[in-house]
Design a protein that fits this description.
This protein has helices at about 15-25, 45-55, 80-90, 100-115; strands at about 5-10, 30-35, 65-70, 75. By secondary structure, it is α+β, with helices and mostly antiparallel strands. It contains 4 helices and 4 strands. The protein is about 40% helix and about 15% strand.
């Protein structure tokens, strides 16, 4: 039996969207688990409060989003780390083939970060 990695994020797009866009682009097989975030203005995080103790021992930095790839012993949090893992597993060239491409890919990813700050 092959176990697909599980990506966990809130029931919204926000920062998780770039992970799911990359997964769609690469065709990388995965399971998507959504945590419910309550309505505004409080945005309760009850789902995360229940889930965090169950997975905290697996993640160095328990946070959402996170990826659990049990078949390969990989447990990651943080959007960019998850995206780099997917890129290397699927097509290393997505990160760039030389210093300029690598820097350009990193620059683009940092611009995306600014959208949420």
């Amino acid at each position: 039996d092959y176990f697909y990695p599980t990506v966990v994020y809130w029931d919204e797009r926000a920062k998780g969207a770039q992970i799911f866009n990359l997964l769609a682009y690469t065709g990388f097989p995965y399971k998507h688990e959504m945590l419910v975030r309550g309505p505004a203005p409080d945005y309760h995080k009850d789902d995360w409060a229940q889930k965090k103790p169950q997975i905290s021992h697996l993640l160095d930095f328990p946070n959402v989003p996170y990826l659990l790839d049990e078949a390969n012993g990989v447990y990651l949090s943080e959007t960019k780390s998850i995206m780099k893992y997917i890129a290397v597993r699927y097509d290393r060239d997505l990160l760039g083939r030389d210093a300029v491409e690598i820097a350009t890919a990193d620059m683009i990813s940092r611009v995306h970060d600014d959208w949420y700050n």
